[in-house]
Design a protein that fits this description.
two-stranded antiparallel sheet, four-stranded mixed beta sheet, alpha+beta, single chain
């Protein structure tokens, strides 16, 4: 069996569980030696599609959206940070950290997919937001990350301003929602089966073994 295993990963770049889940998935792929047999495409999902340009302070956001008090928030941050550290990803939460609008990030990721650099850009945006205290709703930040990966800045700017591309990204988000995706990360295996949540490495390994015929 030599066919590629197609993985659509539906996620948002400001979703901590999305990078944790990906690190588990990546470790499973590497453990099985399937790097050349797996094709990953990141699909757009906006946790807060109505988030205003100025964003919202993170503690206030989780209190408003989830009812989480400061003590709960601190515990959650410590837990997710420990999980990230296990797989080499650093979460650096800080006072005044904001949750931001991610529409432009998803539009740029759509462009990066066409250039064969989507996965690299996705990893950079996760690190920019969670590790490096960067505002991933800021076009200057997005374009700098794109340029650092070798993407053409002028072409990336045109992509961000392309109304058809923006509409397509929104349509993709709505399509996944119509198919029942309401939480992220969600991994779609060969467009046939799905798994939601940051699953353990062993769980992803089991599914990949079956799909790869190992």
């Amino acid at each position: 069996m030599s066919d590629k295993i197609k993985l659509d990963i539906i996620s948002d770049v400001v979703c901590p569980w999305c990078i944790v889940g990906y690190k588990h998935l990546e470790a499973a792929i590497n453990e099985l030696g399937l790097q050349d047999r797996v094709e990953i495409e990141w699909q757009p999902f906006e946790l807060n599609s109505d988030m205003p340009p100025e964003g919202e302070e993170l503690r206030a956001h989780v209190l408003r959206k989830y009812g989480a008090q400061r003590e709960d928030s601190d515990k959650a941050r410590a837990h997710i940070s420990a999980l990230g550290a296990e797989y080499g990803f650093e979460f650096d939460y800080f006072d005044g950290m904001k949750i931001v609008n991610t529409r432009d990030a998803h539009v740029l990721l759509d462009y990066a997919h066409e250039q064969g650099l989507q996965n690299q850009l996705k990893q950079r945006l996760f690190a920019a937001f969670f590790t490096e205290h960067k505002d991933v709703s800021d076009r200057a930040v997005l374009l700098a990350e794109a340029q650092n990966l070798g993407l053409d800045t002028a072409a990336a700017t045109l992509a961000l301003d392309d109304s058809e591309r923006r509409s397509r990204v929104v349509s993709q988000e709505q399509q996944w929602q119509r198919q029942g995706v309401s939480g992220v990360p969600t991994v779609i295996f060969n467009r046939r089966s799905a798994m939601t949540g940051a699953q353990p490495q062993a769980t992803y390994k089991e599914v990949l073994q079956e799909l790869a015929g190992l």
